[in-house]
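A further point concerns the way the authors explain their paired sequence and structure data. Since the whole study asks how a given chain folds, the encoding of that fold should be made plain. A single example would do more here than another paragraph of explanation. An entry of this sort, consisting of the sequence and the corresponding backbone structure tokens, reads as follows:

_____
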Amino acid sequence: MDRQQLADFLRTRRAALRPGDVGMPEGPRRRTPGLRRQEVAQLAGISVEYYIRLEQARGPKPSRQVLTALARALMLVHDERAHLFNLADERPDTSASSRGDVPPTILNLLAGLDDFPAYVVNAAYDMLAWNPLADRLMGWLSQLSPEQRNILRANFSGPHAAAALSDERYAGFLRQCVADVRASLARDPADAVLRALVDELLRSSPEFGELWADHEVGVRTVQTKQVVHEEYGPLEFDCQVLEVPATCFRIIFYVPQPGSRTAEVFATMAALTPVTSGAPASVA
């Protein structure tokens, strides 16, 4: 733990914030810019004395819970959060990014995609954002609850789980997903969102438990998927997965072969008026 570097970092981040940035009144007689130490301590839910000692480079090593609270209080972005954890000799915390906050640039990318269905998932396979074509293809994602938009939950314990698991090709896809989740949890064992999902599925789905017990590990890459759409019948496309650097997010594209029937179906869907607006939907 580099106490002096940690102290310097906390001071500079505190000085970069105004009270209005964190919902506090400006108040009179502020001699220096930024938040006061007691305000940061209040926002983080720790004692003022403890925070002062951290800024004076003489405090004990903060716990992961304290680091997470400080990152939230100081409104740190992803790279700053990771730096804070590294200074305290802790593994960077990525569990916060498992819950949402898809980067605006990724939302803009989805908004510009008209030809291919595309959506964003986190390490727990929550679908967090999508373009209108994915919304239509996948049964109006915008009308589902966040719990229903979790790919693993829907396929292992949802109302259509039995059909998904009985399809040999789709079951292979789910096996890959489980292996991918195990790899993600190994990279970040502190991800509380992902750990809670695994525990939930172990309780609710014997099929998930069997796959989890196999201890397969692997990161998802491109694969060919074949699905039967209620309205348009059999569709086949490549499922391309792209990592978003420095996050737990991935963009998944459904790419058909040029000139194929699936490409024609996607073009027909894209020409229809979507339920969602032209901008991509996202889940907070």
User: Anything to note?
Assistant: Residues 27 and 149 are 44 Å apart (CA to CA). Confidence is low (pLDDT under 50) at residues 95-99, 275-284. The first strand starts at residue 118 and ends at 121.
